[in-house]
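no rush on this but wanted to send it before i forget. what follows is a protein written twice so to speak, once as letters and once as structure tokens for the fold. mainly i need to know what kind of three dimensional shape the backbone takes. thanks a lot i owe you, the record is right below.
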Amino acid sequence: MNTYLETAKFSRPYLRRYWFRFVAGILLAVAFGLSNGLVVGSLYTMIHRLDDPAHVREVTEKGRQAEAVAAQKKGEENSTIHYLQTQRKIFQEKLYVLVDPVLPLKGRTLDWKQILGCLLFLPIFAALRGFLGYGSSYLMAWSGQRITNDVKLDAFKKISSLSLDFFHKTTTGELINRIDRDSTGLNNFLKMGLSDLIKEPVTIFSILCTMLYIDWKFTFISLAFLPLSIIPTRSIGRRLKNLGRQDFEMGVGQNNISMESFQNVRITKAYGLQALHTEVFGKAGMRSAYLSTKSVQSREMLNPIVQTLFSFGISAVLLYAIWSNTEFDKISAFILALTLFAGSFKKLNGIGVYLTQLTLSLERLMDLFRLEPSVKEDPHPKALTRFNRDIQFKNVDFTYGEGPVLRNVSFLLPHGQRLGLAGESGSGKSSLLNLLFRFYDATGGVIEIDGAPIERYRIADLRAQMALVSQDILLFNATVAENISYGKIGASRAEIEEAAHRAHAHDFISELPLGYDTPLGERGIRLSGGQRQRIAIARAFVRNAPILVLDEATASLDSKSEAEVQRAIDELAENRTVVCVAHRLSTLRAMDQIIVMEKGSIVEQGSFDELLHRKGLFASMAARQSILPQAAPAGV
């Protein structure tokens, strides 16, 4: 019951968007369930007219004699069983009177009405049942697919809204499974499980009424063994849930190894890791196959249990029918109804599989939707239209949770100046940039832009003031023009081409097969490193942000590409406030001031030449790169 309530609560906002078709699907499912009883009842009526015409004539005649029926009712006992038997007789008599003119009767001369009625009687009910089932399944699938797409969209938006710390703790394979597999579990339930959850109980009720109509004693005898299936059904449901959790983890493992192998295909091939990755992938797949097989094994175990119990019921009914000398038409129609009842009951038990998937999917989806970004918007944000004064770090501390990364960092960067950040790997340079972009929040101190803490600004406004060019060049599987336009959503073609010209990228773009409309492939694999970096610089140009952040922008390039890219960066940096992280210290010559960091603290600060002459940490780093201070002029 908790699963149904959680599903209803979770699905309610999505169902409202498609309520008309969804409700129509439910109503058709209810009608479909009721039509099953009509099909069995109509078949029983036809068999009875062929097997026992004398009884049919007798009942029909009684139906026409309403006074005799009323007199008979007054004389019967007022017990529940007698009342139900009386009502059954009255219903049967009225039914026989209604259909008698249009249905054939054994021993009676056929007329055109009876021939037409015989040809159409069963097909009408069968067609009604079929189209009701079709309509219900279509509408439920239509609604389910759209609800699932909305859930996927919201899951994607939720994940995208979370802060970087979440992504550092979660693998890409798990995120993909969260969006795809969990939404699929909900979709399967809405499309198939929920449809059966409505159809089958109504079908069971409808056929049960028909079985009671045929013979109430047969009904109680046949269903006496049914409660015995409850215990194994619950046990199997718990086992399926546990297996489903393990199978999800194996699926995440397979996704992770495949993504890592394909995204790093050069390293994979260079180090001959194909066999190792294939082995790991295969082991995860075999484990997943084992768990899936166990799930099927557990699920299918319900079938022999239910079939055996219903077989006991059929055997008991046949034994009683032989003992009571029951007519053939009654026992044959009842066995048919019992068979349909058993089929619906098995389907209803099978819904447990969808419910198990749903439970696991809902748990993970609701856990996801309950997450909140660690970097939160100010409820009443301050407007930041254009950076125009300064950036100031005041006694800033930061930790990722495993020890301090930044300690008491303080500096002032006026508008229009260029700041270089130097230091060994792990000194805190990238963490400082992460705080500037508000990918994380400082754990101590304050960072101000134009005199206000950056937490006061809307995050989108803050990041709109900055353009990032990093060592990790990320291009998307889109055209050249689209990749450049991501710097400014809605940029015109003229703006895109102007940005490419300024980034010195126009010439090689023009030589591509489709020019600016050439798809670059995943991660821009069709371009060289220098070309990819100039596309990234064009993206920064089209953004036209007042603050330019360079994070090892030329570190992975050869000397020729570095010179080309550096020329584009120099043009991009004109009339902008610049924050530049560089491992190659020669790229920091043009900086107005340089901050040298060590173990999260600022240990030196000054211009390029000043730091070289101080013979401190910066000078020793420069010496390792064969950068030496220039000799002082004579007389100085």
Summary: The beta strands are 390-399, 404-414, 418-423, 444-449, 452-453, 466-470, 547-551, 577-581, 593-598, 601-606.
